[in-house]
Amino acid sequence: MKAWVCKELIGEKGLSLEEQDSPVCGPDQIKIRNHVAALNFPDVLITRGQYQLKLDPPFTPGSECGGVVLEVGSNIKGFKTGQRVMVMSGFGAFSQELVVSPPFQQVHLIPDAMSFEEAAAFNMTYGTGMHGLQQRGNLQAGETLLVLGSAGGCGSAAVEIGKAMGARVIAGASSDKKCAIAKELGADEIINYKTENLRDRVMEITDKQGVDVIFDPVGDALFDQAKRCAGWNCRYLVIGFAGGEIPTFAVNYSIIKSMSVVGVAYGMSAIKEPAMNQANFQQLFEWYQQGKLKPHIGKRYNLSQLPEALAEMHAGNTVGKTAVSFVD
Ligand SMILES: NC(=O)c1ccc[n+]([C@@H]2O[C@H](COP(=O)([O-])OP(=O)(O)OC[C@H]3O[C@@H](n4cnc5c(N)ncnc54)[C@H](OP(=O)(O)O)[C@@H]3O)[C@@H](O)[C@H]2O)c1
Question: What spacing in Å lies between the alpha carbon of 108 and ligand 1's midpoint?
Fold first, then answer.
């Protein structure tokens, strides 16, 4: 079987495609045949040694995939060979076969109607969007949500989830093409924050009230504009820093608008609070079945093109989710 191996922490140029033996499935593990892997920004960071999870080369990156259970360890209950599963593994998913160890909170059976591609594109971004908006943002029906990077992976999921939760969604993105995608996903209003003043447009749209919740996977200089869009009692969800710099914040600003700056740590929360995560995915799958969620696959690649796909994500050129087929 083939696996991408990170030999040097220099991004996609440090990856090489290798032929390897099928991994051994231990008694406490399950083995997966990967059909499709989806990219996430953490893959870009991990392969550069810039993520909170630091791995020493050689290792196989890849945070999530959709595939089939090939083997189940003798101590494992709850999985059977042949089941279709979506797996958020953190790393190891850029491989045709992988073994997954407990805890299994981020392994879900794929709903019948969902393709491997959609399944690969679901776990990380919809899990983050749901946990962020539901538990951390306490978003209520009728409230106004501002989503930044709204055509990206986490952002596009947050737009759809925000609509499913009954919010009015303002979607911001850095180009007209990206804004059009956010509109297609269901956003009520769109703002191109490259060509328009984010704060002025939000205040215009909200009748000077500002927004109740801000979902920010971009950070960097955009944070300074975005915090000025806050309404009274706003919850500012810190998702990530795809823009580059981690912004700093003078805490007096939280008093001016009675604003909470709330960190979102989906992966660790799913492990620490498994019942919460299970309930979130039950709701997400219901919304998927009702047609309210539909992962937007921006571009498809084959196995050998993976470095090209990662480079596009690093450059900020991807929209929705990027899918890479691992079937030869
Ligand atoms: N907190 C959590 O639990 C959690 C979970 C998953 C991911 N994350 C983090 O969330 C962030 C977004 O992840 P993602 O997978 O959604 O990424 P993504 O699909 O690449 O989307 C990120 C968005 O950020 C904007 N951006 C600005 N500069 C960029 C650059 N140089 N490169 C790439 N994007 C740039 C782009 O939107 P515009 O061009 O429209 O501005 C892009 O659509 C990452 O920092 C990731 O580590 C956090």
Answer: 24
